[in-house]
Amino acid sequence: MIKVSVLYPNGEGKTFDMDYYCNTHVPMVAGLLGDSVKGATVENGLGGGEPDSPAPFAAMGNLYFDSVEAFENSFGPNTEQIMADLPNFTNIEPTIQVSEVMI
Amino acid sequence: MIKVSVLYPNGEGKTFDMDYYCNTHVPMVAGLLGDSVKGATVENGLGGGEPDSPAPFAAMGNLYFDSVEAFENSFGPNTEQIMADLPNFTNIEPTIQVSEVMI
Question: Does the structure show a pLDDT above 90 at B82?
Fold first, then answer.
């Protein structure tokens, strides 16, 4: 199983509309990618490792696929449309990580 | 539900022993924290968002708890022992994120 993580680094002046992300963006992406998506999770940053420290990431979104090929084949043709929606909920340039699920 | 993510940033000269992490470190942490841990996942970094780009993170480990208090109360007394195991599998200083699970 492959996990594609979209991490939104926190910082001064950074904004993130979690309501739009959960209710509009993620459903739109799931609809575009269709059956190749095996699962989706979303997390809202609360803090860092030390008490009262800021969260390194404002938000994290994760999509699961059967393989890297399944991700690339479904995401590739929709990249432009997906990226064009980002300004509707954030001014953060996300960090993207493709991982193999071990546990 | 609370997700505590331990992210190991990639970089030149950085090492990470995934076998030790999955088979020794994560079970040790789960044993120390006991019933407060509601789930654990581990991911191995494969790449970034662009084809053939390096993974931003060598590895990511995630623990799930019912609340921030449940995390702090179980992790706090074991922090020293857990951190002392890090040099056994990596030379990376991890980034820790505490998040609220939205989806």
Answer: yes
Which residues have CB under 8 Å from B51's CB, separation 6+?
A: A72
Cβ B99–A60 below 8 Å, yes or no? yes
In the structure, what pLDDT confidence band is assigned to residue B49 with cuts at 50, 70 and 90? confident
Find the farthest-apart pair of alpha carbons in chain B and give their distance in angstroms, rounded.
43
pLDDT of B11-20, one tens digit each? 999 999 999 9
Q: What is the pLDDT of residue B50?
A: 84
Q: Is the pLDDT of residue B74 over 90?
A: yes
Contact B42, B60 (CB under 8 A): yes
Q: How far is CA A64 from the centre of its chain?
A: 11
Nearest CA in chain B to A75: B49
Residue B86 CB neighbours (<10 A): 16
Cross-chain residue pair A97–B44, CB shorter than 8 Å: no
User: Taking CB atoms and an 8 Å limit, are B100 and A56 in contact across chains?
Assistant: no
Q: Are A69 and A83 in contact (CB under 8 A)?
A: no
Task: Tell me the mean pLDDT in the region A11-32.
Answer: 97
Query: A16 near A90, Cβ under 8 Å?
Result: yes
The radius of gyration computed from the CA coordinates of chain A, to the nearest angstrom, equals: 14
